[in-house]
Amino acid sequence: MPFAIEVTGFADEEGVRFASTLLGSRAVAGTFDESVLSVEDRAGISMREALAQFGLDPEHIGAAARARSELLAYIELHIEQGPLLENEKLPVGVVTAISGATRLAVVLSGMAGHAGTVPMAFRRDALAGAAECILTIEQFCRADKALVGTVGYINAMPGATNVIPGRVSFTIDIRATSDPHRKMAVADIVRQIEKIAKRRELMLQLDVTHENRTVPCAPWLKAQVAEAIAGEDYRVFELPSGAGHDGMAMIDIADVAMVFVRCRGGISHHPDEHVDTADADAGTRVLLRLIENFRPRDAAESVNP
Q: 222-232: per-residue pLDDT in tens?
């Protein structure tokens, strides 16, 4: 073939252990932030120590970096992790963009007190305040089809049955396919949380812990994905990716595209996550057809200006 094909397995896209995402792809893209090497897991082991224990040299991460001139494109085949393809009765789809995400850590502090002796009117219940915040986030995002919002973690202290919670921490995850839209939504949600905290006489600490920009898939690559899907006799259907992927890092050194494969029930990050063998086969054949007929950007844009 007139170009090389490289298959890469990236480390720790999810960032579960050290709460820092896209580690492998950021290294390849040359954007790895070495400050995260000092971040510790729940056992107090730093990322630097974990890499060394695994037999790797943290000082040589920079050697993984590639230059834009070395790559024609980055293409990823992935399960959808959502219900749209199943709803359309299609095994594969063309990804339009990877949604940007903002994550926040919120701490509400009130006053702990005895559950039996503090009248309701005198309470500064941090958990009740957090509950109101969470419902506000849900209502706000339900009213806007372009948004998704999730509170995935909550912790109430002191955590006793007969004690009014005095301190609650929780997380917020807001995603949208438009960066300006997402940022405006986050600002609106923060203002509403501030109002709730003030009205309930709660101290508020709010920090942005993660922010990834929206990554659009390149039109010249999307067109070739669509051709490959049509070539396999499937209807071409475009959809965004609400989940993050390594393409969010790779876009710094290459145009990106993604092919989505249907998953049963739209379920992901759950033991019931499943892709039928026939759908995996369809996705693989689309990817093969795409590779066999791939046109670099200059040639592709001359065909589809």
A: 999 999 999 99
